[in-house]
Write a structure and sequence with these properties.
This protein is of the alpha+beta class and about 475 residues long. Helices cover about 45% and strands about 15% of the residues. The chain has helices at about 45-50, 50-55, 65-75, 90-100, 120-125, 135-140, 165-175, 185-190, 195-200, 250-270, 275-280, 310-325, 330-335, 345-355, 375-385, 390-395, 410-430, 430-440, 445-455, 460-479; strands at about 5-10, 15-25, 25-30, 150-155, 160-165, 205, 220-225, 235-240, 285, 295-300, 305-310, 365, 370, 375.
């Protein structure tokens, strides 16, 4: 069995040659048709000497001009609309605006090491991209070791999982904490290729002074997101960080091709996975946090991951069943869903429809209960809080539990979860964790939280200015 994606034209192997990203005998790689040369052998020397680099670079704003505009913008001497009148690329201008709005300090000396640092080994062991490391190393890392280039692989939340490449470049990257376990999401460090690629879910390049944080402005980077081939969920990003050559069109093609190869690799693993291995996995996941539609993710009989949307009533029922593994009677479930008007006949009808929706997961009767393990994002947040990993809990918590639900039992659980998380955030005394909470919809009206950020941020810092402005807005709302 094989799968392939062919790139023609400006590929890393040279103009007009065909590059196939795919499988051969279960191995993935890039096969250059013509002279049988590995496409990444000497890739960086070809990129640096290529005329394509000069042509691509001509589209970028000069670094000196970028730094001048950046200095004016972060100092508050010009407003955000001023960026539209400059030669800064729109994608960078929008990222700068988001970075400033989230209170990112442009003079921060390095990315925060999130709580994920403490669980890095566990993240690596369980992350889907771990199985694709040989593919990434073959296509990118092996030829980056003597090229001044760093290759990074991130999780979907921006945590750096693996950082490999040229030893000297790795040592220099450590000075800005570009190391495994560090959080390089856009919300933490501002505009950067891996973080912004994840925020926008698209491939992109960031060159030197386009970075929001000054500590990163001597680097250029190219990144592409990687998705689960079955569900389409964002898994993480692949990033190249180095000198100006990393911002070339050929480098972008190389990273893009590697991301395609990784997704093909994951798809093949799923197709060839033994049936026993599929049965050992949790079959279903329930996603009910945040403003989006509640989702049911499950593994079908062939081992493929599927995602479907849930009705509000079905989402309520599944939340309650995951919180009560012992089961619920029809009367008790009716009271938890609606303490006034819901009758048992309606509950039974809904349960009948729900069974068809969540197959192959079975629901028992008398009492109603889930007969197979189901992982929910609600329980994941509670588990992280019980383990003392507050930043990790925040990474899972994308917003309030089913905010539109009128179920009294769901409303109670919503309040319990939100209050537990906020209390844990305040107890950490960590301003980075506090900023993450305040960025959530619930945090926008948390006056005590904004006061803590104002008092804890450095005098005259961007974070303090942002907190002062937000507090003024809250006071006006109350006036």
């Amino acid at each position: 069995m094989s799968a392939a994606c062919t790139l023609v034209g400006s590929s890393p192997t040279g103009p007009g040659r065909r590059t196939t990203v795919g499988t051969s005998g279960g191995r993935f790689g890039l096969e250059a048709r013509g002279r049988g040369v590995s496409p990444v052998q000497g890739a960086w020397s070809r990129v640096v000497s290529s005329k394509a680099l000069d042509a691509h670079a001509s589209a970028w704003s000069p670094p000196t001009a970028l730094r001048a505009v950046h200095d004016l913008f972060v100092a508050g001497e010009v407003d955000s609309t001023y960026l539209d009148s400059t030669s800064i690329r729109p994608i960078v201008a929008e990222s700068w605006r988001r970075s400033l709005a989230k209170g990112v300090d442009p003079d921060w000396e390095g990315a925060d090491s999130s709580a994920a640092t403490l669980r890095l080994a566990r993240m690596r062991d369980t992350h889907p991209l771990a199985s694709a490391l040989p593919v990434i190393r073959r296509l990118l890392v092996d030829d980056a070791r003597d090229s001044g280039v760093v290759v990074a692989i991130t999780s979907a939340d921006g945590t750096l999982l693996w950082v490999e490449g040229d030893p000297e470049a790795l040592r220099k990257a450590e000075s800005m904490n570009f190391v495994p376990g560090a959080d390089w999401s856009e919300r933490r460090v501002g505009t950067n290729a891996p973080g912004t690629a994840l925020a926008l879910d698209r491939e992109l390049q960031i060159r030197s002074s386009e970075h929001f944080s000054r500590v990163a402005q001597r680097w250029s980077c190219t990144a592409a997101p990687v998705h689960d081939p079955g569900t389409g969920d964002l898994l993480g990003a692949i990033d190249l960080t180095g000198g100006v050559e990393v911002a070339s069109a050929q480098a972008l093609a190389l990273v893009r091709a590697t991301a395609v190869a990784v997704e093909n690799h994951l798809a093949l693993l799923r197709l060839t996975k033994p049936v026993a291995a599929v049965g050992d996995q949790v079959k279903a996941r329930l996603r009910v946090l945040g403003a989006g539609r509640p989702r049911w993710q499950f593994t079908d009989e062939r081992g493929n991951r599927r995602t479907s949307s849930l009705t509000p009533r079905h989402a309520d029922i599944l939340v309650l069943l995951t919180q009560h593994p012992e089961g619920l009677s029809a009367d008790h479930l009716a009271m938890m869903l609606d303490d006034k008007d819901l009758d048992v006949v309606t509950v039974r009808a809904e349960m009948s429809r729900l069974r068809r929706v969540i197959k192959p997961v079975a629901v028992g009767s008398r009492p109603y209960r889930l007969l197979e393990p189901v992982v929910s994002d609600v329980n994941e947040v509670f588990d992280e809080l019980r383990a003392g990993r507050v930043a990790a809990a925040l990474d899972v918590y994308t917003g309030a539990l089913l905010p539109q639900s009128m179920s009294p039992a769901v409303a109670r659980l919503r309040t319990e979860l939100s209050t537990s998380l906020r209390t844990a955030v305040i107890a950490t005394g960590d301003l980075a964790v506090l900023r993450h909470w305040l960025d959530l919809p619930e945090g926008q009206d948390d006056r005590d939280g904004w006061r803590l950020l104002h008092d804890g941020a450095g005098a005259g810092s961007v974070g303090q200015a942002r907190a002062r402005g937000h507090l003024a807005g809250l006071d006006m709302d109350l006036a």
